[in-house]
Amino acid sequence: MAGGVVKVKELDWLRDDLCTDPEVPFSWSQEDVSDLYSHTTILLAAEVFYDDDLTDALFKTLSRLVHKLKNACTAILSVEKRLNFTLRHLDVTCEAYDHFRSWLQRLERLADGRLRFVVEPVEASFPQLLVYERIQQLELWKIFVEPVM
Known about the structure:
Number of helices: 3
Distance between the termini: 34 Å
Oligomer: single chain
Strand content: 15-25%
CATH class of the largest domain: Alpha Beta
């Protein structure tokens, strides 16, 4: 598609608001914020679920964003089941993955009356256009968010 525009903007999950300070690199102008809420239909996050606090912050940011969007949207998330031996369990566990999945379950049960969240895994059987090792521990998830009528 010729003529497209790519803009890079800061999205700090640990902040409650978008940075609109014009002195800060990659900050949001009022036009950018308006465009975000008026036209966004797809959100992507890849390889960002490895710390529980950051996972919490990402899902809270996702919730804040989708509550302000004017259109239904789809979030595509990738997560890797990182196996770790923990002294607490004296076993190999995937604690960050389990925390991620608990957030997906919370979204599915969310009943705030304004939005409906449909969560489903994405089968990774699509053609590979780049050469990479597709490991079994990598999962893709789709969250479809739409207003409740």
